């Protein structure tokens, strides 16, 4: 379980994440939604210790992320962020191999090679394996980094807007893949999503943030209603039932 | 893995060939006089080239760019400043009583502490832009040099004289008394660099991804800055500041290897630097009969290349 207590981050007197205490489960798909600037990405960055917190703490399976050995955290928790800038010449396979670093420290074992092969196959990257990462399209690159996170093989997988740059087939492909990871491998997937309908269809739980605090938290059925969504986003919604899924329309 | 080993093999052969040529060119029978002298020179060039190449590649990885080098960021200016301050504050009598070897170790230790503290603060969380760093580097370098010349001005002329002969080593007046200890320190620095190689590889992905993969960023940065400062001390003590050699060989190495692996890049860059120095020195001394211009030529070629890189980068 990931537990945050009173987690706070402030930039120039603007409180971005305000005293957030939340528990994220051992398994399943949890989506974090909210408007731009609500603090979703900042929350994820602090949970994964990429960003220091101004106050509060985060525990992953009881380990304090800010003080425990970084490598131990890296064996339990991985994160994919939006930044994709890369200067070095590096192939897709090499990117995925980096995911094994916490386990192997650069010397790949047989198990590592197997995990890398699996991750590449899982993300359908076989044909690009030897291509340079800079030669790929945005969507392919995104999949390569998802494969790297998979190869890291951690219980908790955090993804910050993994559907960025992806067209519909690939976005749905990634969501199906994440769902499969949770179902078949018992992993806990936590992701920031802007498309609330993907959140509704694929998650077990939706956490909604507004102005740095959590304003709604529960199963999709309980969050996906016009009143709650209007409160989160300050705009009009109509929610319809489509084959058992709650789908929100917000285009007019 | 065939390509890197072929490349490394070929460069090693070239470097050995250049060294053999340098040692034997026009000796005219005075072997017992020429050979030991020249062997010392070759050894010094190998040490200097390796130190500069390795420190530059490491620095470029932690700053994630291919333009900045420790030298451009003022590392060797800081070394000269620290060396001057030691004499300035202790006085020439006390300073002269310190054996050269101890003196060198004191300077190296001072640079390691000062540069690591300073550049840890400058680099911060690894997210400063290239131009901020260039600016800081230029200002820091100028500031250190100005402080040094200020001390020269207020210094006792005798102290100044002693310092000058001590500080401004060059390719023609390599400080060979320090060659032994410099070789030892170089071995330590290179050992550390290769040992930290896998961590350097991960750092090419950027600070955030490295942290996500379990790198303790601040601690790794400190270790790497210490290695850089150690290597800069070695090269600066032997031949004085050379601004652009590292820039040239590091970029040439990336072009040749086309990999991010530091075990390969460090080796190729070091071999290129050694080759450039020995071949350059051999040509200058024996073909063109020039003296004392090797660093000037390196700075000319490297400086032009630096400007080209800056222009290219600003067009991105």
Summarize the model shown.
Chain A is α/β, with parallel strands linked by helices.
Describe the structure in your own words.
The complex is a heterodimer of chains A (252) and B (316). Chain A has 252 residues and is α/β, with parallel strands linked by helices. Chain A has ten helices and twelve strands. Chain A has one domain: 3-Layer(aba) Sandwich (Rossmann fold), CATH 3.40.50.300. Chain A has helices spanning 40-47, 70-76, 92-98, 101-104, 110-122, 138-152, 168-185, 196-202, 220-223, 226-233, and strands at 2-11, 14-24, 28-33, 55-60, 63-64, 77-80, 156-160, 188-192, 205-210, 213-218, 238-242, 245-249. The longest helix of chain A has 18 residues, at 168-185. The radius of gyration of chain A is 18 Å and the shape is globular. Chain B has 316 residues and is mainly α. Chain B is globular and about 60 Å long. The two termini of chain B are 32 Å apart. Chains A and B meet through helix 2 of A and helix 9 and helix 10 of B.
Rg of chain B: 19 Å
**Structural class category of chain B:** mainly alpha
Q: On the 0-100 scale, what is the average pLDDT of chain A?
A: 86
Categorize the overall geometry of chain B. globular
Please state the second-level CATH architecture of chain B: Orthogonal Bundle
Kindly report the name of the CATH homologous superfamily of chain A: P-loop containing nucleotide triphosphate hydrolases
CATH superfamily annotation of chain B: ABC transporter involved in vitamin B12 uptake, BtuC
Instruction: Please identify the top-level CATH class of chain A.
Output: Alpha Beta
Strand order of the largest sheet of chain A: 6-7-8-3-9-10
Determine the fraction of residues in helical runs of chain B and give it as a percent range. Answer: over 70%
The oligomeric status of these chains comes to heterodimer
Low-confidence stretches of chain A: none
């Amino acid at each position: 379980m990931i537990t945050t207590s009173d987690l706070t981050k402030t930039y120039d007197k603007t409180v971005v994440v305000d005293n957030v205490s939340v528990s994220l489960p051992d398994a399943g798909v949890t989506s974090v939604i909210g408007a731009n600037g609500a603090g979703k990405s900042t929350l994820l960055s602090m949970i994964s210790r990429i960003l220091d917190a101004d106050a509060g703490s985060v525990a992953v399976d009881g380990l304090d992320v800010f003080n425990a050995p970084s490598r131990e955290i890296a064996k339990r928790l991985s994160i994919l962020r939006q930044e994709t800038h890369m200067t070095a010449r590096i192939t897709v396979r090499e990117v995925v191999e980096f995911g094994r670093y916490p386990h192997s420290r650069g010397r790949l074992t047989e198990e590592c090679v197997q995990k890398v092969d699996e991750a590449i196959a899982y993300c359908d990257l076989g044909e690009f394996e030897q291509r340079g990462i800079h030669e790929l399209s945005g969507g392919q690159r995104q999949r390569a980094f998802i494969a790297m996170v998979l190869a890291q093989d951690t219980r908790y997988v955090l993804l910050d807007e993994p559907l960025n740059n992806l067209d519909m087939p690939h976005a749905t492909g990634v969501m199906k893949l994440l769902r499969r990871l949770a179902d078949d491998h018992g992993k806990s997937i936590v992701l920031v999503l802007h498309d609330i309908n993907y959140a509704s269809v694929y998650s077990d739980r939706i956490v909604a943030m507004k102005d740095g605090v959590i304003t709604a938290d529960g199963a999709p059925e309980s969050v996906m209603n016009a009143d709650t969504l209007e409160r989160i986003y300050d705009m009009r919604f109509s929610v319809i039932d489509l084959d058992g899924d709650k789908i929100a329309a917000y285009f007019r | 893995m065939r390509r890197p080993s072929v490349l490394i093999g070929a460069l090693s052969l070239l470097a050995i060939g250049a060294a053999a040529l340098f040692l034997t060119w026009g000796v005219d029978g005075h072997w017992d006089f020429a050979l030991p002298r020249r062997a010392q020179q070759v050894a010094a060039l190998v040490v200097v080239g390796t130190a500069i190449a390795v420190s530059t590649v490491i620095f470029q990885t932690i700053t994630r760019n291919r333009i900045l080098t420790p030298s451009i960021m003022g590392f060797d200016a800081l070394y000269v400043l620290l060396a001057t301050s030691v004499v300035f504050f202790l006085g020439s009598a006390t300073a002269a009583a310190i054996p050269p070897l101890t003196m060198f170790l004191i300077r190296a230790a001072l640079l390691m502490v000062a540069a690591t503290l300073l550049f840890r603060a400058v680099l911060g969380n690894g997210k400063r832009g290239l131009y901020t760093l260039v600016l800081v580097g230029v200002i820091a370098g100028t500031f250190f040099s100005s402080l040094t010349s200020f001390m020269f001005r207020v210094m006792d002329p005798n102290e100044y004289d002693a310092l000058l002969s001590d500080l401004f080593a060059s390719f023609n007046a390599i400080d060979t008394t320090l060659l032994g200890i410099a070789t030892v320190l170089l071995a330590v620095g290179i050992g550390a660099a290769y040992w930290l190689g896998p961590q350097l590889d991960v750092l090419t992905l950027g600070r955030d991804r490295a942290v996500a993969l379990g790198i303790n960023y601040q601690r790794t940065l400190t270790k790497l800055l210490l290695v850089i400062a150690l290597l800069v001390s070695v090269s600066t003590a032997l031949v004085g500041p050379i601004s652009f050699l590292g820039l040239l060989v590091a970029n040439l190495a990336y072009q040749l290897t086309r990999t991010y692996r530091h075990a390969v890049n460090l080796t190729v860059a070091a071999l290129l630097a050694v080759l450039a120095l020995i071949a350059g020195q051999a040509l200058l001394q024996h073909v063109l009969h020039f003296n004392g211009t090797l660093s000037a030529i390196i700075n000319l070629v490297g400086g032009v290349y630096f400007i080209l890189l800056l222009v290219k980068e600003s067009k991105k």
